[in-house]
Amino acid sequence: MTPTKPRDVQIAQIAPNTTVLRSRTWERLKFEIEYARQKGTTANSYLIEADSIALIDPPGESFTDIFLEELGQHAYYQRLKYIILSHINPNRIATLKRLLEAAPYATIICSKAGVNTLRSVLANQSFDLPSPREDEANDLGIEFGTNQTLKVHVVRDEETLDLGNGHVLQFRFVPTPRHPDALCTFDRGTGILYTDKLFGSHVCDDAVFDEHWKTLADDRKYYFDCLYAAQSTQVEAILTKIAEFPTRIYAPAHGSIVRHSRSVLTLDYQSWCEQQQKKDLSVALLYTSAYGNTATLARAIEKGITQSGVKVRSIDCEFTELEEITDAVQACDGFIIGSPTLAGHPPTQIQTALGIVLSTANQTKVAGVFGSYGWSGEAVDLIASKLQDVGYPQGFEPIRVKFAPTEETLEQCEAAGVEFAKVLNKAKKVRAPRQISVDGQTDRTGRAIGRVTGSLCVITANNGNKPVGLMSSRVSQAGFSPPAITIAVAKDRELECLANPGEKCVVNILKEGNTNLQRHFLKPPTPGTDRFADLETTLADNGCIVLTEALSYLECTVKNRMDCGDRWLLYAVVDNGKVLELTGVTAIDRRQASNQY
Ligand SMILES: Cc1cc2nc3c(=O)[nH]c(=O)nc-3n(C[C@H](O)[C@H](O)[C@H](O)COP(=O)(O)O)c2cc1C
Known about the structure:
The chain is an alpha/beta fold. Helix content is 30%, strand content 28%. Strand 10 (183-187) and strand 11 (192-196) form a beta hairpin. The chain binds flavin mononucleotide.
């Protein structure tokens, strides 16, 4: 295994008086769904050194020490006048606390929606704020007020802040259900728009700017799907809002700075939002989360649903008007309620949302419930039983997760999202009257495509340390010299580990008559269990699992991956192969129509 590079902070000047500090990790930072492509990430902070100095977005606690060390070498903490927080993230508090202890003259800037969260997270912290000294302040040319306690300035939408030397900052509120307090900052002096989470990607590399933007396409889309697909209406509104700025560069919180592909990426965001709006099935995901655990579960369920082609409207009930909740419940085909248990109950916002659901949603809507709890977990049971009383069809079994989710529980949630979408699709088929003319043509085409057959294979690979396996009948020989194949795989997280050139896999070609393996791999994997535990296996030279009951196997290296709508098409070179049974015949997938397996 290649040793991973240690975390570091890359520093680069990106415009006059403007420096980026990219806190980098080459490993997956968290097990949250948005990091699943395992390409590391960067937490970008920006320093504007004009007459007054402003720092935008110090990183989370994974980087506190290395970031503060680099910042200290670059700028005097005492001269730091503003710390702008584009959104309040409890994870940032560890860094913020240490920063404030070293920078006694700094004022925190955040939005009105952010200040409450800031107060509540800071309330649990004991600060050791140094007393600023008047003589030191005078030496540094800093205005010295008498009240030198923790200073927070809550900005208004469109407010400006003049840092001097032409750096006039203008703030815009860009709220989404996930980040209701989000703030974008435009610097009129440089044309840089500090976009926080927007336009980012979780990729760690040496390129500060996006010269290589074409190679980022999949990562950007994946990032959008995880963070914004369920909030496309709000994102469309944000895009209109920020279009007013004469922006030259997007400076996001993660990944490379967007200079070369700014227009392309803006158009991509517009079209991805439009694609979401056009989907004909939709889910209202109503949740609230005091400490972030239920919100993390919501993200994973959301991902499972959107990857199945169903639109999600995610609503944090704490920050949403009742009319919007009512509107979402009326418009949706299914709804999901997520709630923590606090003092034996769902919080008030969820009780209110449940009231709206019970009085608004007709009985045909598909329902789901989930939530994080600490010891008794009454909230999920209470909501589930109320929904059961009405008789809503269930999209998945109620999900209860004790405190913070693990990687397994998030997988379970994602699988539940996929399941929910399936139930919705089935319910739609039952309801929809058959449109003879249009469906007739579609059926004819589907039946014609169905005559294309493929050999049944199981693709095995390693997702981090975890072996994964997926059935596919879309494997074809693509080249002779070098021997190469193409594999079409569903846009499924299981094989996301084959996203990059150089990744290894084994194609196990199944034998006609061996229904054991076929049945095994047709079932969806159960999260947290070893899929290969009951099978006879051995390891190939490339480290992937070989199913010894297969007819033959190919050891492959991925060279390329192409986006083909609902599938990825992998092009892989065959490095090695072996026939395991000389007399058997290849199992073939014969079907009546293109949408059957
Ligand atoms: C004030 C408070 C009261 C709580 N009461 C309960 C309770 O009655 N039953 C329970 O199972 N968990 C209880 N918990 C634990 C939370 O449900 C648990 O921390 C959960 O992960 C919170 O989810 P969230 O991060 O989505 O807010 C309580 C936690 C707090 C802070």
